[in-house]
Amino acid sequence: MLRRLLLLCALLAVLPLLVSFRLQPATAGHEALLYDVRAAFVAARSDVPAVLVTETDRLVNEAILSTIRQRVLPRTILTIRIDRLVSRPTILGGKRAATVSVEAVAVGNGEVIAEGSFDLSVFSLRRDAVDLLLAERIAARIASEFRLAGEPRSTLAIALFPGR
Q1: Residue 105 contacts residue 38 (beta carbons within 8 Å)
Q2: Nearest to residue 77, comparing CAs of 115, 43, 34, 40?
Q3: Please, which domain of life does this record's source organism belong to (predicted)?
Q4: Which of 17, 87, 119, 147 is the most exposed place for a label (fewest CB within 10 A)?
C-alpha cells in the first residue's frame, strides 16, 4: 500500500514536467516532402462505382489546378488507387469504407518517389450521396497531404458564419 502511494506521488510530481515537454518539429522552417503535383489519375477495380472514381479524379485535379507553388519543387504525378471498397449495412442511410493508396511518380524519370495508403469511412443519410461524400473525403485527404489548394466545400457553419 505504501509502495503504491509513493508511486502515485512520484507520478503526480513528474506529470507536469512531462506535459510541458515538447519536441520541435523536424520540418520547422522548411517544407519536407512537398512536390509540384502536375496531374492525378484515379484507378479502381470494376466493382467500384464509376461515380466514385470520376468524382475523386475531378476533385483532386481541381485542387491541383488551383495550387500555385512559390518555389521550384520536384514535379510529380499522383497515381491514386481505390484498393478496397466496403459497403456496411445501416438501418438508415449508407456507410462506405475505402482503402486508398497513393504514389507520387517523378515526371522526369517515372520513378516512384513517395507512396502511402490510408483508410476512410463515411456515413450519409442519403444512400445515393454516399459515393460523392466518399470522393470528397478522399480528395480532401490527398489535398491535405500534398498541400494542394483545393476549394473547401461549403458546410452549414460556413453558410451561417461567412467570412470567418
Answers
A1: no
A2: 40
A3: Bacteria
A4: 17
Nearest residue to 78 via CA among 13, 7, 138, 18: 138
CA distance 127 to 77: 33
Domain locations along the chain = 36-150
Distance CA(51)–CA(121), nearest Å, equals 17
Mean pLDDT of 10-17: 70
Alpha-carbon distances of 38 from 107, 114, 122, 146, 163, rounded to whole Å: 8, 15, 28, 12, 31
pTM: 0.71
H-helix segments, the chain: 2-20, 50-65, 130-145, 156-160
Q: How far is CA 116 from CA 43, 92, 99, 107, in A?
A: 15, 33, 11, 18
Cα gap 80→55, rounded to integer Å: 13
Q: pLDDT band for position 162 (50/70/90)? A: low
- Per the CB < 8 A criterion, the answer to whether 151 and 58 are in contact is no
Grid cell of 121 as nine digits: 469511412
